[in-house]
């Protein structure tokens, strides 16, 4: 993301974040007067990414980062935001599509990803030992090989 140097253990998550940011930006750009085709295409593309990639990303983060020896508040926030985002996103997919909810999802997802990249990941990198980061890398290497990265 934007030139940030990431430990290899976290790079697969950062690459996932690019997909999330792409969709968050598209959702935030929707307007009340957006054509129905644009609204439908934007939300449908996000729904596909959500089902295929983002839910998997959330589960991987919760599984691999949830037990790390870093600040309890950070891990609690990670989990809580994943739950809150999931609940909000489920509302987004109800028809008729709601532009206000789309904007809220985009804004929340964007802020969540930026928090992870600028606060959570640096804390992980500075708190874990190189040995712990190497063990995490082995897990995230498996994730990276399984990803089918696609923006749309």
Question: Per DSSP, what share of the residues sits in E-state strands of 2 or more residues?
Answer: under 5%
Distance separating the two termini: 19 Å
Count of distinct structural domains: 1
Largest beta-sheet characterization: none
Mean pLDDT: 92
- Outline the low-pLDDT stretches: none
Radius of gyration, CA atoms, in whole angstroms: 16 Å
The helix-and-strand class reads mainly alpha
The helix count comes to 5
Apparent shape: elongated
Helical fraction equals: over 70%
Total DSSP E strands:
0
H/E element order: HHHHH
Describe this structure in words.
There is one protein chain. With 152 residues, the protein is mostly helical. The chain has one domain. Helix content is 76%, strand content 0%. The chain has five helices and no strands. The chain is elongated. The chain starts with 10 loop residues before the first helix and ends in a 6-residue tail after the last helix.
